Amino acid sequence: MQRAYWGRAIAGIAAAAGWAGLALQLAILVRGLGFAAGLWRYLGYFTILTNLGAALVATSWVLGRGDLLSSSRSRLTAATCILIVGLVYSIALRGLWSPSGWQKVSDVLLHDTTPLLWFVLWIVAPPAGLEWRDIKWAILPAPIYAAYSLARGAFNGWYPYWFLDPAMQSPIELFVSIVLLLCAFALVAAFLIGLSRFRPLRPHPSAASPATSR
């Protein structure tokens, strides 16, 4: 009961942080590029799409709606994607720019705060019933986004991430980048499923009492 309470509370904070970061980033892009161009650029980032999905899942969790968004598989997929956002940004992207002002606030909310909150949420209230085969659902966003990003880039020449930019990599390097991304998703998903399935060994209540005679 206590775990459920704290899980819902942390999910609420994660949802609030996600929605705040998303709204702020949209405002920044629209202000700089105009509404149409800003929205188009906004919807090209994996960070944005992932935080949008994670915020929806966390909101559904808080509301206790019991729908597809709050299912164990949806939570696994959201957690995997948002942790990938934090890991990839820290490893491959953080050093490429130095945001300031409101952009810095948005950057911290979307790349640091929400991944950390989702990890804490997973520790405090992991969903039940996950199996190892559920990894396939968690890695599905990776090839979908790769195809989406490459199609968008072919249309207007803009790619949000260097590791998915054909102009910055050879075809073989691009293929390797996508394979590594898939592997990262699988590893993170497996780690999360392992945590959700871990249960400390506790004696059964009946084992603590002496057997009664019939």
From TrEMBL:
Keywords, ordered alphabetically: Membrane, Transmembrane, Transmembrane helix
Q: Where is the signal peptide?
A: none
- Entry's InterPro entries? Pr6Pr-like (IPR049713)
Q: Where are the bilayer-spanning segments?
A: 9-30, 42-64, 76-96, 108-125, 137-155, 175-195
Concerning NCBIfam families, the annotation shows: Pr6Pr
| Protein name, UniProt field | Pr6Pr family membrane protein
Q: Which organism is it from?
A: Sphingomonas telluris
